[in-house]
Q: What sequence folds into this?
């Protein structure tokens, strides 16, 4: 079986929910303490064995390419004795990992963004990671999906149970007849029409056949080419499984989810965690007084 070494990061979205912060800065570079959102997904992919990172960008996303590029100013940091800081910057992308940047000329949906990466993917299975979904915990969802693909050779979705009020925000799976199998995927159904409460989150391992389906998929919801429609067809063909998310997931595409991630990561921070926890408790007492 072909090993999975390629991962696609669709990062061409405009990030309108975070305006005006994202007027000139990609939302994927919004920091959680001292690390941008997208770097968490990139580190997850690399730890899972990915060696080719394919970023599908848009016109306003040049800063993402700059973030993952080499930095000539590293020499100045080393000369000034800032070896630890220089190592942190230099170690963002290991030497054995390649970054490839592909343009999505028009915002035609997640499915179209994935299809833009087809010339790089070729006829290989590949992972897709949505930077908005930051996941904390081990094993990571990407590692779990890759392991599941190695066992089955099928498309794999990372899923979690979602609150009834949030069902219409997700692609919801229709469970199959056997444990872990997926019979279908419905994009953002109303609660009364949802086949389950299991939502597909932003981690996938896809067979190359998905690209063939996307190439012939007409625009769906919102006039966009939906990845969920292609996965739904593959599921009807009996080639999709689901893996339950085992870590903590933060929806950093929403302001509250982003704030939640900042708080939880800060509380777990080796240097700042205790002081930050004390500050939160102090503020809570002041509010209650």
A:
């Amino acid at each position: 079986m072909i090993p999975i070494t390629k991962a696609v990061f669709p990062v061409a979205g405009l990030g309108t929910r975070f305006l005006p912060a994202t007027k000139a800065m990609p939302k994927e570079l919004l920091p959680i303490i001292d690390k941008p959102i997208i770097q968490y997904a990139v580190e997850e992919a690399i730890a899972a064995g990915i060696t080719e990172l394919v970023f599908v960008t848009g016109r306003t996303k040049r800063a993402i390419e700059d973030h993952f590029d080499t930095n000539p100013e590293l020499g100045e940091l080393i000369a000034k004795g800032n070896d630890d800081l220089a190592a942190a910057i230099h170690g963002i992308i290991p030497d054995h990992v390649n970054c490839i940047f592909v343009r999505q000329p028009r915002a035609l949906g997640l499915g179209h963004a994935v299809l833009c990466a087809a010339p790089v993917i070729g006829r290989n299975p590949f992972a897709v990671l949505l930077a908005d979904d930051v996941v904390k915990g081990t094993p990571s969802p990407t590692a779990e999906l890759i392991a599941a693909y190695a066992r089955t050779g099928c498309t794999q979705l990372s899923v979690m149970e979602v609150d009834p009020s949030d069902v219409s925000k997700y692609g919801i799976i229709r469970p199959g007849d056997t444990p872990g199998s997926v019979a279908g995927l419905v994009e953002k159904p109303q609660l009364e029409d949802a086949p389950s409460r299991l939502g597909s989150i932003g981690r996938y391992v896809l067979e190359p056949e998905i690209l063939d389906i996307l190439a012939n998929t007409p625009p769906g919801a919102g006039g966009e080419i939906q990845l969920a429609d292609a996965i739904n067809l593959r599921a009807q063909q009996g080639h999709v499984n689901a893996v339950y998310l085992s870590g903590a997931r933060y929806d950093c595409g929403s302001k509250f989810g982003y704030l939640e991630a900042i708080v939880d990561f800060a509380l777990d921070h080796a240097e700042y965690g205790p002081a930050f926890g004390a500050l939160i408790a102090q503020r809570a007492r002041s509010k209650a007084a």
